[in-house]
Amino acid sequence: MHPSATALLNRLLVRGKFRHIQVLLKLAELGSIQRTAESIGTTQSAVTQTLAYLEQMLETPLFQRHARGVQPTRACIELLPVARQLLEGLFESVEVISAHHRGGGMLRLIGSESATQSLLVPALPEFFQRHPAVQVQLRQAEGDDQLLAISRGEVDLLACRRPAAMPAGWDFVPLLEDRYGVVCAPDHPLRRRSRVMWATLANQTWLLAPSGTAVRTRFDELAARFGQPPRTHALVTRALAATVALLRASKAIALLPHSIVRHLVDAGELAFVPIDETIVMPPIGLMRPVGQLGEAAAKFCEFLLERATQTPAPPSRLAARRRRSAAN
Fold first, then answer.
1. What is the CATH number of the domain that holds 274?
2. What is the mean pLDDT of the chain?
3. Comparing C-alpha atoms, which of 90, 124, 119 is closest to residue 107?
4. Own/partner pairs for 235-242, CB < 8 Å, 24+ apart?
5. pLDDT tens-digit profile of 22-81?
6. Which of 111, 258, 281, 298 could form a disulfide with 116 if both were Cys (CB 3.0 to 4.6 A apart)?
């Protein structure tokens, strides 16, 4: 007779250890008792005994032994996602306690790529100078993954663009204007021109983002002006490192948000093609829960709002050129 779910739960609560989860995941990952023992700093016999104890406690075979090592059973494979969540929860709980030992609390922060590059990276050093005891856990996510983190309660604040559908109980504060730019390698022939018309851009090779992304949708709208299908590079990607490498290695150009590539242009790795048009896009801001924030989240939210009022928005290339012309 198989044990009930309640009986298994009571066994795990009384006899289970976090070490069991660690051994289970490492064995599934490495497929070897010896390598698992080396990885977690214990002996092969200790790993073997831990596995036997866990299988006996659950009354379920978790691995099949063979000459080359071990292979997860179906039960083990189905258990692995839950085991990973448990271990990740343990890691996060350690960070929470560590943050409270420091006296400042912890902020779970998610940023889109644009928001991370343009809003968070410039702001965080100054924030840590003001609040050195606050510990920030920053991870990057886009679109639906951001909303999923909110639904799971995994995030305190979210730096991004306003979503099409705002989650219940959350609001959005715009903080930073943004726009699209056409970028290329610093030695691209278009870079030497004072002004580039769309008719010229129609004859270029474009490096595209995947379909369904905001930048691809905007490019398709702009490409309708070309009168013919644009030439495109064989690689379609949203990976920034790959985009930069290909732009520098080829004569291709790309449409990208200023917020993502501004630091690369400032560093001389890329350049903006001088088009006399401002291609606007939604601003970057902060999503926050309505109501009382945690102490660390409240401090960071207040800091970003204060910083936004003190940091002037960068002028567009066209506006700056017009001011220089008027001055002359």
1. 3.40.190.290
2. 88
3. 124
4. 235/207, 236/208, 236/209, 236/210, 237/207, 237/209, 237/210, 238/209, 238/210, 238/213, 240/113
5. 999 999 999 999 999 999 999 999 999 999 999 999 999 999 988 888 999 999 999 999
6. 111
Q: Which candidate, 271, 165, 255, 162, places its Cα nearest to that of 216?
A: 255
Strand 279-289 vs strand 157-161: parallel, antiparallel, or unpaired?
A: antiparallel
Burial class (CB in 10 A: 0-12, 13-18, 19+), 248: middle
Between the CA of residue 37 and those of 14, 49, 81, what are the distances in Å?
Answer: 25, 12, 22
**Residues 74 and 198 both lie in one domain:** no
CA distances from 177 to 142, 160, 275, 291 (A): 19, 12, 19, 26
Q: Is residue 324 part of a domain?
A: no
Please give the structure tokens belonging to residue 248: 């520098």
- Give the CA radius of gyration of the chain: 26
Query: What global pTM score does this model have?
Result: 0.70
Residue ranges of alpha helices (H) inside 152-239 are 198-201, 214-223
| Predicted confidence (pLDDT) per residue in 226-282, tens digit | 888 899 999 999 899 999 999 999 889 999 999 999 999 999 999 999 987 889 999
> Which residue segment(s) compose the domain that 243 sits in?
178-281
Tokens for 216? 């691809």
Residue 317: pLDDT over 90: no
Answer whether residue 327 is part of any domain: no
CA-closest candidate to residue 272, choices 224, 241, 226, 316: 316
